[in-house]
C-alpha cells in the first residue's frame, strides 16, 4: 500500500467514525407534566459524549403542534437537575429564545458562549434543553414534532441528530364540571363544619 492511499483510507475511517457518533445523537420530546388545563413538554438530547467531544454548542429547532389542541405559553431553558448544560458556569449570558414563528410553529434557539474546552469537559451526555409549557384547548390526541434547523457542537461544526415526536391525549376539564366540583366541595366542607 502506498503512503498516500493509507492517508486517504485513514481519513475515510475517521469521517465514518464521526458520522457514526453523530448518528447516535437524538432529540426527543418527553412529557414532563399534564393537568386538565396545561401540558409541559421537555426537549431532551441524548447520545453526546459525557465529559468529551462532541458537546452541544448551539441548537435551533422548531416544535410543530396543532393549534386546535394547544396554545404555547412559555419556555424554561435548561435541565431541572443539571442546569443549562450550554452554560457550564451558570453565567446566564447565552442568547436564547422561544418564540412563535407562525401558528403551530415554535422556534427554540440557544447559542453557548462558553469556551469549547469547558463544554467538552463539563457537559453531560444527555439532558433537557428546555421545557415548553402549553395550555390545553381541546380534548383528544395531538402530536408534537421537531424540525431541526441547526445543531452544532462546541467548535461550531454541524451535528446530525434523529428526532422523536410525542403524541399526548389532551383531556381538559369542562368549565361547567370544574364549577360543579368546586361547589360540591364547598357544600361538603360547610356540612362537615356544622
Overall description:
This protein has 194 residues and is α+β, with helices and mostly antiparallel strands. 24% of the residues lie in helices and 42% in strands. It contains 3 helices and 10 strands. A 5-stranded mixed β-sheet has the order 4-7-2-1-9, with no helix packed on it. A 5-stranded antiparallel β-sheet has the order 5-6-3-8-10. Strand 1 and strand 2 form a beta hairpin. The relative contact order is 0.23.
Describe what is shown at a glance.
This protein has 194 residues and is an alpha+beta fold.
What is the 3D form? elongated
Q: From N to C, what is the helix and strand string?
A: HEEEEEEHEEEEH
Spatial order of the strands in the main sheet?
Answer: 4-7-2-1-9
Oligomer: single chain
Terminal Cα span: 97 Å
Specify the number of helices.
3
Number of strands: 10
SSE-based structural type: alpha+beta
Can you give the mean pLDDT?
84
Largest sheet, strands/sense/barrel: 5 strands, mixed
Helix content: 10-25%
* Proportion in β-strands: 35-45%
Low-confidence stretches: 3-23
- Rg result: 22 Å
Amino acid at each position: 500500500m502506498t503512503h498516500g492511499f493509507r492517508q486517504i483510507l485513514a481519513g475515510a475511517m475517521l469521517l465514518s467514525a464521526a458520522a457514526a457518533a453523530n448518528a447516535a445523537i437524538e432529540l426527543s420530546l418527553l412529557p414532563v407534566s399534564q393537568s386538565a388545563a396545561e401540558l409541559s413538554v421537555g426537549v431532551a438530547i441524548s447520545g453526546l459524549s459525557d465529559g468529551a467531544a462532541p458537546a452541544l454548542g448551539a441548537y435551533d429547532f422548531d416544535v410543530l403542534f396543532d393549534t386546535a389542541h394547544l396554545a404555547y405559553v412559555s419556555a424554561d431553558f435548561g435541565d431541572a437537575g443539571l442546569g443549562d448544560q450550554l452554560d457550564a458556569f451558570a453565567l446566564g449570558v447565552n442568547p436564547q429564545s422561544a418564540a412563535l414563528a407562525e401558528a403551530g410553529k415554535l422556534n427554540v434557539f440557544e447559542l453557548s458562549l462558553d469556551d469549547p474546552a469547558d463544554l467538552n469537559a463539563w457537559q453531560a451526555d444527555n439532558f433537557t434543553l428546555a421545557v415548553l409549557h402549553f395550555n390545553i384547548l381541546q380534548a383528544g390526541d395531538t402530536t408534537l414534532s421537531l424540525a431541526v434547523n441547526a445543531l452544532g457542537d462546541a467548535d461550531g461544526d454541524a451535528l446530525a441528530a434523529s428526532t422523536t415526536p410525542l403524541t399526548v391525549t389532551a383531556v381538559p376539564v369542562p368549565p361547567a364540571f370544574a364549577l360543579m366540583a368546586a361547589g360540591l366541595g364547598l357544600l361538603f366542607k360547610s356540612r362537615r363544619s356544622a
